[in-house]
Specification:
The protein has 102 residues and is α+β, with helices and mostly antiparallel strands. It contains four helices and two strands.
């Protein structure tokens, strides 16, 4: 085996095994990697804005309370993503991807 490939066993007419090398689907892996990168960026994008959000809505907090509220906002964002993604995934399974997106 040379290069990037995957080995798959297939039966031949004589009943023996023939090794067939199939190339790794690099284009599909790159697309998948970009999707995962986009998801990761969207999750981490909120964190630089959290102090400004908390300071806007709670201007009179001391430092300890400010840190606590900032942690709550960041946790609520991730928790909302967890429950929202689960809900929309179940809706997509029940009704199909296209009707849910429309």
């Amino acid at each position: 085996m040379t290069g990037v490939s995957e080995t798959r066993q297939t039966a031949t007419a004589a009943g023996g095994d023939k090794v067939v090398e199939t190339p790794l689907p690099l284009f599909k892996l790159v697309i998948l990697g970009l999707i995962v990168l986009g998801n990761t960026v969207s999750i981490w994008m909120i964190f630089p804005m959290v102090p400004f959000i908390v300071r806007h809505y709670f201007p009179d907090l001391d430092e300890k309370e400010f840190g606590y509220k900032a942690g709550l906002v960041a946790s609520a964002f991730s928790l909302g993503g967890l429950f929202g993604n689960t809900f929309w995934g179940m809706m997509s399974d029940a009704f199909g991807r296209r009707p849910v997106l429309l």
